[in-house]
Amino acid sequence: MKVEELDFELPQELIAQMPAENRSESRLLVLNRKTGDISDRRFSGIAEYLFPGDCLVLNDTKVLPARFFARRTTGASLEGLYLDMSGGGLWHVMLKNSRKLKEGEVFDLLSSHGSVFCKILAERRLDDGTWHIRPQSDLPAEKLLEHIGYAPLPPYIKRSRGGEKPDYDRQRYQTVYARQSGAVAAPTAGLHFTDELLNRLDEKGISRAHVTLHVGAGTFKPVTADNLEDHEIHSERFEIDAQNADIINRTHQAGGRIVAVGTTSVRTLETVAQSGGIHAASGDTRLFIMPGFEYRAVDAMITNFHLPKSTLLALVGAFAGMDNIKNAYTHAVKERYHFFSYGDAMLIY
């Protein structure tokens, strides 16, 4: 598939810089993938399209405050993104403005107030440009990030040094059901749910299952190849336990629909389903879903609007059909929907 087929024109002003004031009052584009029909709704009314016996599958990953700031002894500023631990107390990070940084150099890790929190050693620059660094602190990474970190908003959401209201972003760039720490980007389709809305769906007889997929920075990696098949898909850690696998299987057996909330839930379910049915599993997935892929587990999905020429746009195109997705995105632009992480949502069924 040519990557150009995933391109579309998007006015910059439609890229959401802030979330809706109330989570569930974001807009919802509803796409019937069989007929191609499109409806404009509010997310708070999603229960209209969900039925007793359906099951929502939610990714319960918790976003780490993974963005941080540092300062070299020269006074030069650094901006970092924590990716994961690399063993032996080393952090694996991305560092902006690090071209002149040298291996073995010690610099200052700054607190959220701008003061020096601790020293940090630039241990090794990796071949892909990322770094292994070693904080000179006894705190575990997650605890240390609580002191120094900001919400790891994607680069198209503009915030100077963490923004004027960093606590607001840390709260809103997190689902209300997040519980398993490890992501450095949010599963954004879930940001539209409130506890109140979830309770209303419970009362309607819609069950819930949880999976975990820790969203990595690779989710924003642009596709630079001409052919989609030549793109190297990123790897992400996932887990589904026996209890939640059983909820999903019982839903299928009773004739209910599996409604995946977000492409991360889709990717988890379809990864597990490749080996036959839904069962307890964990590991790393490099599943690349593109047009021609045969879905085995997902009957409907809730998702945000994705970047042009992205693997996530290919994923939803594989589910709904590329013509339907192109029509839906043209409609969304015309009707001034908001796009990407803090933007509006789609329901595809």
For CATH, the homologous superfamily of the largest domain is named as QueA-like
**What portion of residues is helical?**
10-25%
**CATH C-level of the largest domain:** Alpha Beta
Mean pLDDT: 96
The largest sheet is: 9 strands, mixed
Shape: globular
**Under CATH, the topology of the largest domain is which?**
QueA-like
Which CATH architecture of the largest domain? 3-Layer(aba) Sandwich
Which structural category do the helix and sheet elements fall into? alpha/beta
Q: What Rg is obtained from the alpha carbons, in whole angstroms?
A: 21 Å
Strand content: 25-35%
Describe this structure in words.
It catalyses: 7-aminomethyl-7-carbaguanosine(34) in tRNA + S-adenosyl-L-methionine = epoxyqueuosine(34) in tRNA + adenine + L-methionine + 2 H(+). One of its GO terms (cellular component) is cytoplasm. It is an enzyme of class 2 (transferase). It is found in: Cytoplasm. Belongs to the QueA family. By secondary structure, the chain is an alpha/beta fold. The protein has two domains: 3-63 and 171-348, QueA-like, CATH 3.40.1780; 67-149, Thrombin, subunit H, CATH 2.40.10. Helices cover 20% and strands 27% of the residues. It contains seven helices and 17 strands. The chain has helices at residues 141-148, 166-172, 195-203, 242-253, 263-273, 311-320, 322-334, and strands spanning 27-31, 38-42, 55-59, 61-63, 67-71, 77-85, 91-96, 106-110, 116-125, 131-135, 180-183, 207-214, 236-240, 258-261, 281-285, 300-304, 345-348. The chain has a nine-stranded mixed beta sheet with strand order 2-1-17-16-14-3-12-13-15. A hairpin with a 6-residue loop joins strand 1 (27-31) and strand 2 (38-42). Helix 6 packs across helix 7 (322-334).
